[in-house]
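== Sequence entry ==
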Amino acid sequence: MKGQEWYQADDVAAEYDDKRFSQGGQLIDRREKEAVLEAIMPVEDRNVLEIACGTGRFTVMLAERGADVVGLDISAAMLQQGRKKAQTANLDGTLEFLRGDAGRLPFPDDHFDTVIAMRFFHLADDPEAFLREMRRVSRDQIVFDTFNRFSARSVYNWALPMGSRLYSKSEVSVLLAKANLTLVDVEDDFLAPYGLYRSIPNRLATAIRTLDETVGGRSLTDHFASVSYWNTRVR
């Protein structure tokens, strides 16, 4: 996986949420959580695995809504941040954090209802292998996102500390077929790149987001969206 050393650093984990989901980044956080909830609903009593769970943004959210969740990540520092969130949350479901490799998931076949991977596939060096492993441990559903090749993301991709893998729709379709997954729905969003939102105050970001949603609501602009949220089912 790209950027493993950078990602596992203690200082990166401590500042991760503040740098990415403060200011205008709050709009990104809200939209990503909305995409996950829409795909998984109803959440209550669902058995969920999140790979590359990071600081637990989604794992804690799902456990608060009554899901039984396991969050797995390679970074001990990120997991520690997630455990701090869980300690202060009012959890209706259960939540467990485990350190592990997404390429060799320590679970039996068909163990979870749903497996999610957000902010992961742009770092995956072998996306087909990772998706097959997710498919192995899921008996029903896999939800993930990708950053898109024909988008504003490609303009600044070179400047990111660990780069990104960008995907076309056709590439993802091939991956789904190889993993024996059926596409239920895909949502495209954010004509303006994530990096722009994170770097400006929330008020300005909200205005840009309003324009983004207005223009991005047209089908012709889907091909230029920065991110796609994929909801798939096991065949």
The beta strands are 47-51, 68-73, 95-99, 112-117, 138-148, 166-167, 181-189, 227-234.
